[in-house]
Amino acid sequence: MSIASSRSYHHGDLRAELLRRAESLLRRSGVDGLSLRQLARDTGVSHAAPSRHFRDKQALLDALAVAGFERLGASFEQAADGGTLLERITAVAREYLRFAIDNPELLGVMFARKQRQTPAIQAAVAQALAMPFAMITDGQERGEVVAGDPRRICLSAMAALQGLATFVGSGFVAAEDADGLFEETVTHMLDGLRPRR
Question: 109 with 64: CB under 8 angstroms?
Answer without folding.
Answer: yes
